[in-house]
Design brief:
Layout: H1 2-42, H2 45-52, H3 55-75, H4 81-105, H5 108-131, H6 137-160, H7 163-192, H8 200-229
Helix pairs in contact: 1-4, 1-7, 1-8, 3-4, 4-8, 5-7, 5-8, 6-7, 7-8
Length: 233
């Protein structure tokens, strides 16, 4: 009986590993598209003027960046694998356009330093979320509440423009997204243990949704670190 149980556990781990490999592959694609889009837009005065030179262009881009993940998450079960993939890639490109201003505000060295720090932190916490036997569900609930508080504080600081509050928000944001990386990794891997590998459409949908979640964790961690340690031009 124990041998049978061990066999089932080994099979679940193997399925989860295959699923997580797809998650990380799509996350990498998203980050590459975002980086390419950001560099392209930052070096195109016409596009910069269209997006940031007028209020309508900026608001439209900001709404798209906020709304598309909600649309993709809410409609994922009704989308074909191709449509879900296109939405994910389009969102990654739009996020790159939105973040192009970062390349204009901060020095290249600061951006690279923040990126490498975010990559190292993300990798470490993703590994922790994979190997730990501790259930991170309670930590995830606490971090979600912290994220809501963080968003409220950021909105308040739009009016206060407090340098000290911005520093505190950035420091707490680093902690929140570091923790969320471990929590989301564990949650996505647990989902992957039951992934129907024979159903390629379902697996693609799940992998894209997992990739989007970890992609957002990484992007937000990167931005918080950049705000915390970046040098402006």
């Amino acid at each position: 009986m124990e041998t049978l149980r061990d066999g089932v556990r080994t099979a679940s781990v193997s399925v989860a590993s295959v699923f997580m490999r797809q998650v990380y592959q799509w996350m990498t694609v998203g980050l590459l598209v975002t980086a390419g889009s950001a560099v392209y837009v930052a070096n195109s005065p016409a596009i910069l003027q269209a997006l940031f030179g007028n209020t309508i262009g900026f608001i439209a881009l900001a709404i798209a960046v906020v709304a598309l993940p909600l649309v993709l998450s809410g409609m994922i079960s009704r989308l074909s694998s191709g449509a879900a993939t296109v939405l994910f890639v389009v969102y990654s490109a739009l996020m790159g356009a939105f973040l192009s201003s970062v390349l204009l505000v901060y020095t290249g060295a600061s951006v690279m330093q923040a990126f490498l720090t975010a990559a190292g932190t993300f990798a470490a916490m993703s590994v922790y979320g994979t190997v730990t036997r501790r259930d991170l569900t309670q930590m995830g609930s606490f971090l979600t509440m912290g994220l809501i508080g963080l968003i409220i504080a950021m909105l308040v600081n739009l009016f206060l423009q407090s340098t000290m509050l911005e520093f505190v928000i950035s420091a707490i944001g680093v902690l929140i997204f570091t923790g969320l990386t471990a929590y989301d990794t564990q949650r996505i891997r647990a989902f992957g243990e039951n992934a129907p590998l024979g159903d390629t459409v379902a697996v693609r949908r799940g992998a894209l949704l997992g990739a989007l979640t970890l992609y957002l964790d990484f992007i937000n961690l990167f931005l918080m670190l950049l705000r915390l340690m970046g040098d402006r031009r």
